[in-house]
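Next comes a single protein record:
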Amino acid sequence: MTALIFDMDGVILDSDSTHRQAWAACNRLYGLETTEEMLRWMHGKRNDQIVQHYFGDRIDAAEVEARGRAKERLYREIAAGSIEQMLLPGLRAFLERHRDLPMAVGSNAEPENVAFVLEEAGLRRYFPVVVDGHQVHRPKPHPDIYLRAAELLQTEPADCIVFEDSHAGVAAARAAGMRVIGLGTTYGNLPGAVLTIDNFQCGDLEPWLLAQMRAV
């Protein structure tokens, strides 16, 4: 059976501007002004990677974790009450149409953020499996998150279709042997995606997905 695996940021919800705001505010607390280049670099990365990139070797592992958690607290404060408006157009209807398929979330995001989004949006019931960046040793672009999701869904990787918005995420899914549908929320071009859509209302999505399901 075909299984569907969803990244969170940029796929379930369009959260880029909120994350940018939170990173800029948090970095400023530590005396660092955030550039556009820094913000572009963060896409698809886990928090420890981002903090280490921003602050270099000046801080130890405990401080890396503390700063990452501080940023995510700011993110949740900013996003509270706005999650419904941030959801990708057509997502809720798409999930309901395909509720009988095995579905999972596979994200580099902090576990508190994943729980926050799924609970605030009332989407938890669609995702019996949730794999975040702290449940595996290697985050995206390594395939570990997606391979773990397939294992928990009891589905072969080749039967999994991943929805991604970042280059790191596409690389991770392809390295896991999965097909990727790209969301154009973050990048206009996602090499490696078999189909690129603006959101879940795209007219090309359902015919393509049904053709894949018939072929399984």
Notes: Residues 16-79 form a domain with the DNA polymerase; domain 1 fold (CATH 1.10.150).
